[in-house]
Request: fold
Amino acid sequence: MLLSGIKRLGLSCSGIFTSGLLLFTLYGCPQERDPQDMALADLEYQWSQILALAQSAPCDNPAQWSYTPYGSKACGGPQGYLAYPLAIDVDRFLNLVEQYRQAENQYNIDFNIASPCDAPLEPTGVDCVDQLPVLLYD
Reply:
């Protein structure tokens, strides 16, 4: 209540130093989050959801796995390739990967991100080693 009243007066937490408001000394001001940090946290959350699905099954049979490009480099193209099991809801998974690509592309634009322009090699398949997927390259 007090904080909203102060904001209505046009004051900010950084503008109140020793005005006798013990409340601010005790509780502080809510942190103002940096837009870039918030966007990065969103990307990290999306990526964690993608990885959780991609790693949700052991790799026992390479024929039951595929791969897809993921992410968006600032100068274009994918960040890399990710193996995923065909036993998951593939449409949902690929939709999440596409949403992540679009979000990373927007992040790159919004925050003037630079990246190397080398293109990652596209794998030729997936193999299973110790129940983990391994991307194959010729």
Summary: The CA atoms of residues 47 and 100 lie 7 Å apart. DSSP finds four helices and four strands in the chain.
